[in-house]
Specification:
Length: 292
């Protein structure tokens, strides 16, 4: 067994969440071998053509990775693992929100910007249109991508959003919380609302606080200094300062730790995928592997 490959126990857990094999057609290649090959590429950040021979043809690994991205299999596997964790009571619904910037390799540039539809061979899937910017931003440091995460108190990533590296944190806040969706094992609607949200000063805005109040979500967000000064200058018309619990805010470090764990995969820490949907699939794959 090579370094980073699945153990027998991990494979049993993953196999229960994989889609069923087709009843007709040619027998597919060993899915454990293919998954290990896909994960090797995400872990090392190497080109697909450099895939070691022990994982089989690189074309097979790339085709499976691409096909499962298009038909949403990676997202479905991650969702099944979240359902099992929630059923076991592991997920804690105190959510911390933050973002991290990842440098984009020069190989990540050059994708077509017209939003052409994509499809994987003969797979019947809904044609999806890529964003024109492909989640890439340009600043003085070059091309970069920003990953916005919502992490619970037990280090489970409940939502991830990709934007350009130059984008701010606050504009993506509602989109991040809107992606939280953990189905229940039995009847009932999926769980979409956390009990408490922790965030840093970048998310201190009237719009975000109003959004959280409308949804009935308690929050701990420190006030920006300029906002506090503006409120103080207005006197009584400035209103009361927002409530802030210093002890609760200390638990926000968990999202920082989770970001560090996620970026241990070099394919995430440095973006090599041209399309945002491919990079998002690489993040989902990494979350799946780390959840096993």
């Amino acid at each position: 067994m090579a370094r980073g490959d699945l153990t027998d126990i991990q494979w049993v857990r993953l196999e229960a969440a994989l889609p069923s094999l087709p009843k007709m057609g040619r027998r597919p290649r060993d899915r454990r071998q293919v998954f290990d090959g896909i994960w090797w590429r995400a872990r090392t950040g190497s080109p697909w053509r450099d895939l070691p021979e022990r994982y089989g043809p690189w074309e097979t690994a790339y085709t499976v990775f691409r096909r499962w991205q298009i038909d949403g299999t990676w997202a479905k596997i991650l969702e099944k693992l979240q359902v099992k964790a929630d059923e076991a009571g592991i997920i804690e619904w105190e959510v911390s929100v933050d973002s991290t910037v990842c440098r984009a390799h020069q190989h990540a540039a050059g994708a077509r910007k017209r939003g052409l539809p994509i499809r994987a061979g003969r797979v019947r899937a809904v044609w999806r249109t890529n964003r024109k910017d492909h989640g890439l931003g340009r600043s003085r440091g070059g091309l970069s991508t920003k990953i916005h995460l919502a992490v619970d108190a037990s280090f489970h990533v409940l939502a991830a959003v990709i934007t350009g590296g130059q984008r701010g944190d606050a504009p993506a806040f509602e989109q991040v919380l809107g992606r939280i969706r953990v189905p229940r094992p039995g009847p009932g609607r999926p769980r979409t609302r956390p009990e408490h949200v922790l965030a840093d000063r970048a998310y201190s805005s009237r719009q975000i606080r109003s959004y959280l109040r409308r949804r009935g979500i308690a929050h701990t967000i420190p006030e920006k200094r300029d906002q506090a000064g503006h409120r103080f200058r207005r006197g009584a018309a400035g209103g009361r300062p927002p409530a802030f619990d210093r002890e609760a805010y200390k638990r926000r470090h968990k999202v920082e730790c989770r970001i560090g764990l996620l970026k241990q995969a070099r394919g995430v820490a440095t973006r090599y995928d041209k399309l945002a949907v491919r990079y998002e699939a690489t993040i989902q794959l990494t979350l799946i592997r780390q959840a096993l």
